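TASK: fixed-backbone design
INPUT:
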């Protein structure tokens, strides 16, 4: 193998790694506040990410408990917008919504720098395609072992990009690129979210999701492993709730009802949850004192992070 051939091979491997779609490209559920389970008995990671945003929650995990509490006290002052000394449901709800929007904006900003190659404040389909798949001339993917997968990825990206590109000019504004990366946040992208979900789960290619495909997307047992209770619960949910017409399958409309339950306001639910758990005098609003008395529900620290790690290890044993 010549030196030139070796260099070309290394470049190809690097682009293969970059071409793997980011996590944003798999959309399963309407935007929740965290990927962690909302189970206070197992820790408060869900609450931390909901209250702070995902990236900010990570930064608190590096602080001492004293530093975390001091920063939380300053945050409470910002949440209390009318300066009456209380955090109301509406103030907390607004804060949580704001933190989630900030996470999305920061995520878009991070990707924007990668794709706006000519720095004109827009991202064309050609810019996106060439940055992600540019090594492969003619979109043939001749040097890739799984050509079909990469062609499928390209077509899927193009379909999502065209749906996000509302004026069909082949160029994404920042708003349109946000819709491309986070389609679950935009009404006009709902059809793409549903279509991608069906494609990901529908293994036999009939355009519908049967019970085995539905369960198989969530749980694959190891050899000899018994099915946990939550899987049995999901089987019941499939037959009694998800499959509304009782034909044994989820069609596009039923999948849409599953993954895009638009009536759920996760930020509103989380605000109610935090107030319920910390409002000791039951006046339906919380003071800084009440919040700081339950600080580890709102924010993490090195200590709480270590404690959660110990709990996980104990559960694994």
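OUTPUT:
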């Amino acid at each position: 193998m010549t030196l030139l051939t070796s260099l070309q091979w290394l470049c190809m491997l690097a682009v293969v790694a970059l071409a793997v779609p980011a996590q944003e490209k798999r959309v399963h559920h309407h935007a929740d506040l965290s990927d962690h389970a909302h189970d206070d008995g197992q820790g408060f990671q869900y609450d931390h990410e909901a209250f702070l945003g995902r990236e900010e929650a990570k930064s608190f995990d590096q602080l001492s408990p004293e530093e975390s509490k001091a920063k939380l006290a300053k945050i409470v002052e910002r949440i209390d917008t009318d300066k009456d000394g209380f955090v109301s449901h509406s103030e907390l709800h607004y804060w949580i919504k704001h933190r989630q929007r900030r996470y999305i904006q920061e995520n878009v900003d991070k990707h924007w720098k990668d794709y706006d190659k000519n720095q004109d404040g827009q991202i064309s389909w050609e810019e996106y395609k060439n940055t992600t798949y540019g090594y492969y001339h003619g979109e043939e993917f001749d040097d890739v072992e799984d050509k079909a997968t990469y062609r499928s990825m390209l077509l899927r990206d193009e379909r999502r990009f065209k749906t996000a590109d509302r004026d069909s000019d082949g160029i994404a504004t920042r708003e349109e690129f946000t819709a491309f990366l986070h389609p679950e946040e935009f009404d006009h992208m709902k059809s793409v979210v549903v279509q991608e979900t069906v494609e990901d789960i529908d293994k036999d290619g009939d355009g519908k999701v049967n019970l085995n495909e539905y369960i198989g997307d969530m749980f694959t047992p190891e050899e000899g492993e018994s099915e946990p209770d939550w899987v049995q619960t999901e089987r019941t949910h499939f037959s009694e709730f998800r499959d509304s017409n009782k034909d044994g399958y989820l069609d596009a409309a039923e999948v849409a009802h599953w993954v895009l339950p638009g009536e759920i306001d996760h930020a509103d639910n989380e605000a109610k949850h935090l107030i319920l758990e910390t409002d000791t005098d039951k006046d339906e609003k919380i003071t800084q004192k009440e919040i700081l008395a339950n600080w580890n529900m709102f924010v993490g620290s090195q200590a709480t992070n270590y404690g959660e790690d110990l709990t996980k290890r104990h559960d694994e044993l």
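COMMENT: The two ends are 50 Å apart (CA to CA).
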